[in-house]
Amino acid sequence: MEHSDVADDLVAVLVSEKEIQAKIIELAAAIDADYAGLDVLLVGVLKGAVMVMADLARAMHLPVKLDFMAVSSYGSGSSSSGVVRILKDLDYGIEHRHVVVVEDIVDSGLTLSWLVANLRSRNPASVEVCALMRKPDAVKQDVVVRYLGFDIPRDFVVGYGLDYAEKYRNLPFVATLRPSVYEQAPG
Ligand code: IMP
Questions:
Q1: How deeply is 40 buried, as exposed, middle or buried, from its count of CB atoms within 10 A (0-12, 13-18, 19+)?
Q2: Which pTM value belongs to this model?
Q3: Which residue of 19, 56, 112, 146 could cross-link 128, Cys pair, CB 3.0 to 4.6 Å?
């Protein structure tokens, strides 16, 4: 069977399952405290943010609502194209609502800055961002990540929602991917 042992494709665990879960509890508590008494809509960015969204929402005590958007920025490659397209929009309007965008990782920041501008144009009460991880280039974009999990190096990582060519999303930790895996890929 092709790739029967996923561990062979990984170099090292960068953020362990335990570290992720502890950080999610902290982020959830911070959001709970800041939005006490308010109606919060968590907007997850598919597919990468599904794990963060599921764990964050369950760690929160506020009665939040959930919605999802799907945008394309990477295709199946490992570097940002800078081109953002909405593949799936929100199910409901966000006018006068408090929105927290839930992201897995901010790399170039292009996707997020585009998304935040797009959401702000819909006249919400507020838009803030919660991201589990951020890479160094993200600072070039003018996006404030109000709730940040970890600053990580530039390496391409997979797991806990993050994929390479749709694989590795179900790993409960975040790991660096062996460059030979993406260097061999066709196209
Ligand atoms: P950005 O526009 O460069 O900030 O890229 C944002 C999106 O690219 C993230 O939401 C991820 O889906 C994807 N991405 C960025 N870095 C990685 C990575 O290291 N592994 C897997 N996906 C990534």
A1: buried
A2: 0.91
A3: 146
